[in-house]
Amino acid sequence: PHAILYTMVRVKDLDRSLRFYCDALGMQEMRRETFADAKFTLVFVGYANSSALIELTYNWGDNSYSHGTGYGHIALEVQNILQVCNHLSEFGIKIVRAPGPMKMAPDETAEREIIAFIEDPDGYKIELIQAP
After folding, report:
1. What pLDDT is stored for residue 108 in this prediction?
2. How many Å apart are CA 55 and CA 6, to the nearest integer?
3. What is the DSSP string of 54-93?
4. What is the average per-residue pLDDT within 124-132?
5. Mean pLDDT of all residues in the chain?
6. Catalytic residue from among 108, 111, 113, 127
7. Starting from the edge strand earliest in sequence, which strands make up the sheet with 6-10, in order?
8. Helix (H, G, I), strand (E, B), or coil: what is residue 117?
């Protein structure tokens, strides 16, 4: 193996998720695959400058899944974390953890590692990390 291609998350409302990932976070829809016989749609979203994608899997009419206890979060690098959080707030996106230094980080990284957490419409956690 030599590359991370994508991470898959199941979504309950594809349009709502696309508004979040594309409109609010600025990702682009890179590819869409619809499997009518199996009743599901895959939409791959990401940034033009990155090869890693997020696969949004929408199982038509099935909202019975849960995140489980093993899932952590998706991490995104941002240039200006305060500006991004203000922008996301304008979209009505709740900032779960306000921007600030990473807690419990070693002293030498505490001042340069500024993070925040948000949630997507399905409750998946997304960590925003200020670019160095």
Report:
1. 60
2. 6
3. EEEEEETT-------SS---EEEEES-HHHHHHHHHHTT-
4. 94
5. 92
6. 127
7. 6-10, 53-59, 40-46, 28-35
8. strand
